[in-house]
Write a structure and sequence with these properties.
5 strands; five-stranded antiparallel beta sheet; alpha+beta; Beta-Lactamase
């Protein structure tokens, strides 16, 4: 399965030049796949379990309301210097870090299409 996740990360990282990093995080908050654009390795910390666990918890806690509101497509978190997009994928979370000046909703919809295509191919 990890080779498919690696291919998914590659596909997403090529979508837009504003994408700085892509990672797949397991339910324990550990990255199992990751891609950093050259020169942006500070955007995705190597050993910050709290950072990755936050992403997992946002999606996980939102799943508690799937029956009432439907499943989460994505979550957007805008910070002063960057925007983080998280997507549920299988029992993992896909994290995409983009530059601040990017339109997060249109990019999130493009990424959702790539994820859906990836799921259909499996």
């Amino acid at each position: 399965m990890y080779s498919e996740l690696d291919a998914l990360c590659e596909s997403i990282s090529c979508l837009d030049s504003s994408i700085e990093a892509v990672a797949v995080i397991n339910k324990f908050g550990r990255p199992v796949e990751r891609i950093d654009r050259e020169g942006n390795n500070k955007r995705l910390p190597r050993d910050s379990e709290m950072f990755f666990m936050q992403c997992v918890l946002q999606i996980s806690m939102g799943n508690d309301f799937d029956e009432q509101y439907g499943p989460i497509n994505y979550h957007i978190s805008e910070r002063q210097n960057l925007t983080m997009l998280t997507f549920p994928i299988y029992d993992h979370v896909l994290l995409v870090i983009v530059k601040k000046d990017t339109s997060p909703i249109s990019l999130a919809r493009k990424i959702t299409c790539v994820i859906d295509t990836h799921r259909k191919q499996l």
